[in-house]
User: Which sequence fits this backbone?
């Protein structure tokens, strides 16, 4: 049996608590607070203690879904991205770029949030960007 602790940062809010994932035979089985992390100093809230659960959840989406006639149908990434790009293009042509808004989340990384706002401004052409931390 191979067991190791992998350091990471909790992604559930912007506080950024340090955690250690307990990994047994390549599978994350628990989350522990990082005692030496300057933000949380060995403490976690209830969300942090359960951080590992979504990784192996059967409810986790692992591939894109397209809603067709009221039902979600599995598809591949190429088709999903093409469909999304086509719909963005149609909406922008008909209503303008400010008809689209991009909402991001504290549950993704700073780098992903940065890319999302860059995508909104540079690719879509709108400043309509907001974040769940403001709600
Ligand atoms: S453990 Fe709680 S307070 Fe710390 S980052 Fe996660 S959600 Fe935020």
Assistant:
């Amino acid at each position: 049996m191979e067991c190791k602790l992998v350091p990471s940062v909790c992604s559930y809010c912007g506080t950024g608590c340090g955690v250690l994932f307990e990994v047994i035979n390549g599978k994350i089985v628990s989350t522990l607070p990082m005692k030496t992390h300057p933000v949380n100093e060995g403490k976690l809230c209830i969300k942090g203690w359960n951080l590992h659960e979504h990784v192996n959840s059967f409810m986790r989406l692992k591939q894109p879904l397209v809603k067709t006639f009221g039902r979600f149908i599995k598809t591949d990434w190429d088709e999903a991205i093409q469909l999304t790009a086509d719909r963005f293009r149609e909406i922008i042509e008909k209503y303008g770029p400010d008809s689209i808004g991009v909402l991001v989340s504290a549950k993704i990384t700073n780098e992903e949030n940065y890319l999302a706002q860059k995508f909104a401004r540079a690719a879509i052409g709108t400043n309509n960007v907001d974040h769940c931390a403001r709600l």
User: Anything to note?
Assistant: Helices lie at 46-49, 77-95, 110-124. The longest strand covers residues 3-9. The two ends are 45 Å apart (CA to CA).
